[in-house]
Write a structure and sequence with these properties.
With 341 residues, this protein is of the alpha/beta class. Helices cover 30% and strands 20% of the residues. It folds into two domains: 11-63 and 297-339, no CATH class; 80-290, Rossmann fold, CATH 3.40.50. The chain binds zinc ion (ZN).
């Protein structure tokens, strides 16, 4: 399959041998052992042209199952520390955005994963603030915040919203969607010409990926190079400002999907990149949905495999006890009532 960012065919699967060969205590294994994602269970691939790394393919419906499913294993008893860290992180983010605001401040959109409540801080600046979260539970929470208009994530593609926003904030979402190029194109359609986009993603190296130093729901791994390539390939945006910062590693899981560390060390940090982009587009691409549908068809050959591995618990988690492995039957039998908890 071609690279999801630059469309190059020069793609390779990451495998354990290449890392062991570089280490001092080389204990080379003649069998190639591919590196699979510790949450999704599918192979991780790397583009040799733009350095973009990602899970080979995950169908958007599988991603929806992850975010619509209540915690399957460990739930921290006290989430107040996480909430405090989220607030601090969002404060740093908004301090950065405020320095590069669009001139007109009529309408803003906050797209997040598990952070929808943080959209409220933009209500002081914009006449109207829309919020949409990949996690339905957080959309419900944001619904209780005064001044916020909450949209289900699936509804942001409606053409009624095209060319209506002055600012869009993409908070920890780019590393979690099946088609990042489509998301940036959607933002170009939603923004008015000259509108601004804040894009925030973790910065991940190959060894971070090898060591599974990512959140369980994170499936795209960007470097500065692949992020710049994404913006270049899309072609609608001009980079106004780039900032590197840090965030607590404890925030990398938006839900308790899969196994979460019981002894979270809140002092550990990781690098993130924030970009402010300006929308330069003049002509709208007409049919966004078709672009995504075409990409899905191209990936169909790997779809059945990825779904099989994920639903059967054949990822690394399957070696763990039944308590922590993903139970496919449990996911299937979930009722709407359970989702409310
Ligand atoms: Zn590429």
């Amino acid at each position: 399959m071609p690279c999801k960012i630059c469309k190059s065919q020069d793609i390779m699967s990451l495998h354990h041998n290449s890392f062991h060969a570089n280490s001092e205590s080389s204990n080379s294994n003649p069998d190639v052992r591919h590196i699979v994602h510790s949450g999704i269970g599918a192979q991780i691939v790397k583009c040799n042209v733009c350095n973009f790394m990602s899970v080979e393919f995950v169908h958007p419906s599988v991603i929806n199952i992850i975010y619509e499913t209540p915690p399957l294993s460990f739930i921290p008893k006290d989430v107040s520390k996480q909430q405090e860290l989220h607030k601090q992180n969002c404060q740093n983010q908004s301090l950065f955005v405020k320095r590069y605001m669009p001139e007109v401040k009529e309408r803003a959109l906050f797209l997040g994963v598990g952070r929808a409540e943080n959209a409220q801080r933009y209500c002081e600046i914009f006449n109207e603030v829309f919020s949409s979260d990949l996690v339905p539970q957080h959309n419900k929470l944001a619904g209780g915040c005064s001044g916020l208009r909450v949209l289900p994530f699936a509804n942001i593609q409606t053409p009624d919203l095209f060319e209506t926003f002055n600012l869009i904030i993409l908070s920890n979402i780019f590393e979690r969607v099946a088609f990042p190029l489509n998301l940036i194109r959607l933002c170009a359609n939603l923004l008015k010409q000259g509108g601004r986009l804040l894009l925030e993603v973790p910065k991940m190296s190959e060894s971070d990926v090898f060591n599974s130093a990512y959140g369980r729901e994170e499936i795209n791994f960007f470097s500065s190079k692949s992020l710049e390539k994404l913006i270049e390939v899309d072609g609608n945006f001009k980079i106004i400002k780039t900032e590197e910062s840090i965030e607590p590693i404890a925030l990398r899981d938006a839900t308790c999907f899969g196994l979460q560390s019981k002894n979270t060390d809140f002092s550990n940090k990781r690098s993130i990149v924030r970009l402010i982009l300006e929308n330069k587009r003049h002509i709208l691409n007409t049919n966004l949905v078709d672009i995504e549908q075409q990409d899905i068809l191209k990936h169909l050959s790997t779809l059945s495999f990825a779904l099989f591995v994920s639903a059967s618990g054949l990822s690394r988690f399957s070696e763990l006890t039944g308590e922590t492995a993903i139970d496919a039957k449990y996911i299937k039998n979930l009722s709407l009532t359970q989702l409310d908890h």
